[in-house]
Amino acid sequence: MASRLNPYLSFDGDARQALEFYQEVFGGELDLNTYGDLGGQEGQPDADKIMHGMLETPSGFTLMGADTPPGMEHTPGNNFSVSLSGDDDAELRGYWQKLSAGGSESVPLEKQMWGDVFGMCTDRFGITWMVNISEPQG
């Protein structure tokens, strides 16, 4: 898979409604994963909130989004980041090193509970970046 660059939007509890609306606008396939889907959240108030959503449209647009994670503050006006994802480990780690240099890391680039390597940083210009490296597909 080639690396992909796309916006990643953060919502204050209404990510499902927003991403379903964008699907109505742009068409395409919408994949939604809740905090409860990964287990350990059953019966918790946030179990049905969206941990990760991705809309892929027939025009080639990709839009990702999620509800703000529990314990983090939703800040309107600062509710987006740029996502880099793919399975080319060397390429994506190279982007990560350059983007995080002179900036700050909020989530270190390391293996996550969903199996991918993921990190989040803010570059020296104040832009938030998310890098997700998946295993190459057979």
TrEMBL record:
CDD domains: PhnB_like. InterPro entries: Glyas_Bleomycin-R_OHBP_Dase, Glyas_Fos-R_dOase_dom, PhnB-like. Pfam families: Glyoxalase. Residues 4-131 form the Glyoxalase/fosfomycin resistance/dioxygenase domain. This is VOC family protein.
